[in-house]
Design a protein that fits this description.
The chain has about 300 residues and is of the alpha+beta class. It is about 35% helix and about 35% strand. The chain contains six helices and ten strands, in the order ααββαββββααβαβββ. It has helices at about 5-15, 15-45, 85-105, 175, 180-190, 205-235, and strands spanning about 55-70, 70-85, 115-130, 135-140, 145, 150-170, 195-205, 235-250, 250-255, 280-295. The strands form three sheets. The chain has a five-stranded antiparallel β-sheet. A three-stranded antiparallel β-sheet has the order 1-10-8. The relative contact order is 0.19.
Length: about 300
Amino acid sequence: MNETQSNTFIAWVQATPLRKGILSTIFIFIALALVATTVLLFKQASRVGVSENYPQTLNVTGKAEEYVKPDTLQFNISINEEGKDVGEATKKAGDKVAQAITILKANGVEEKNIKTSNYSVQDKYDSVSEPCAYSSSAVSSDMRVMAVAPCTNTTSKIVGSTVYQSLEVKIQDIEKNATAEQRSKIVGELAAANIKTDGFTFTVFDLDAVKARVREEAIKEARADAKVLARNLGVKLRGLSSFSEGGDYMPYAYGSARAEMMSAKDVAAPMVPTVQLPTGEQKVTSTVTLTYLIK
């Protein structure tokens, strides 16, 4: 725009108040448009990397616990048998396992509750020395006889094998099938047969049912808390988004005790010492976390 055109535009604006008002209105609209554009750009920048449908959630936690009395006795039988080879060691271990099962079944243990938890074979090596093939003396180039130091070859040779086998035994219904007297009788008869027992543990046979029951109570508590919290916050629960659970169960275990590892000499007496193993109670806990979508 040249100077003449600029003077003409200014003269046109100043000609009447109406034209001044129109120009002021145009400037105001331009300013408002600039402000709106700036605000929009700021909002867009603040939500970079955030989904437009980002869900709003509410987390609640529920916890429940239950003390249960064990109904099952669990322990281990360890059998280690040596032989001049794998075949002999395997047969000895098999005979000992059969003997252990016979004793257990005679004392009311169901065969389905006797299972192998470990089986391995280890070879036994020994060093064997043999003389070298050549003579201990030699003849030199001038026909003189020279003494040579004795020579031997040392090699490793398999001289035997050992079979290691472990059985896991469970006796259900402790009060009926595994009283203190019955436990002592079983341990005593196994010890007399030179069969080692250890790892006595009291547990719950159907532990999954107990855990499910405790989990159900924890979920009920979490749901109730979610309804109260939503009401207090003035929001509505739309549906469950996720679920997680934590918990623990610690069976009551006993290490090998003197009465649990009696030798054949110990049980030769008419009366076998009573194994004192209090059963106690175990605590089963469940902690659940529920995540709800809200609006």
